[in-house]
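Students often ask why we bother encoding 3D structure as a string. The short answer is that it lets us treat folding as translation between two languages. Here is a chain of 256 residues written in the first language.
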Amino acid sequence: MKRPFLSCFGRHLLWAACLLPLFSCNSNSAGEADGETTESAAEDEQTLEPLTTENAVAKLEAFGQNNQDSLAVISTRHGDIKVRLYKDTPLHRANFVRLTRAGFYNEGEFYRVVKGFAVQGGDSDEREMSQGAYKIPQEFNPKYIHKRGALAMARYGDERNPEKESSSHNFYIVTGESVSKEDLLAFEQKHGIDYTPQQEQTYLSIGGEPGLDTEYTVFGEVVEGMDVVEKIEQEPVDASDWPRQIVPHTIKIVNE
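And here it is in the second language, the structure alphabet:
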């Protein structure tokens, strides 16, 4: 059974008072994850070189320069979810592509489901691939918000992770609901954000989770298959938000 992780539940206004350790990793150690060994797109699947705090950034930068992929498909028993990875969050993009090409995510699952909030994946107790212990420096970009369908990286909470560095492998997709004008203003004041008119309209109409902005790195978005995310969101869960029937996923990189 997966070990529980810190969480801070609540609805919109309540989140503003939380420390937001919400999407903490549920695996071995802070920021742990895997990496592949070489920096070409032709790497052997299943070949992983554990990264470390000391070499992770350099390895990811080198990999990203030689691998410009930005589209991936997450396949589940409910169907496929196509996501676009943002090139101006280069470390997160490179990391996701790197692990995907290694076959790392083919041993993962959506293991946490909070209806009306997000579904979280990447990890699994059945994983056989070895892992290193590294985190990804945050890449907050004001262009990218936690709108419905946003793809972002999990992390440990501020007390143990004041730099807000991302997990190396646990990710989530936002399924949040529409936000009121008053709540959105409260989040702007709380986090020192000045949303553009378009971003404001996105939250008011499409929905999302503005309480997570400037707290977690958004590095992509769903471009097809949000209906599949909604099906995962409807999975029955236990008291810890684990789906009662696991939702394994595989991920592959696809051409533009």
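Translate back mentally: The mean pLDDT is 84. Keep this in mind for the problem set.
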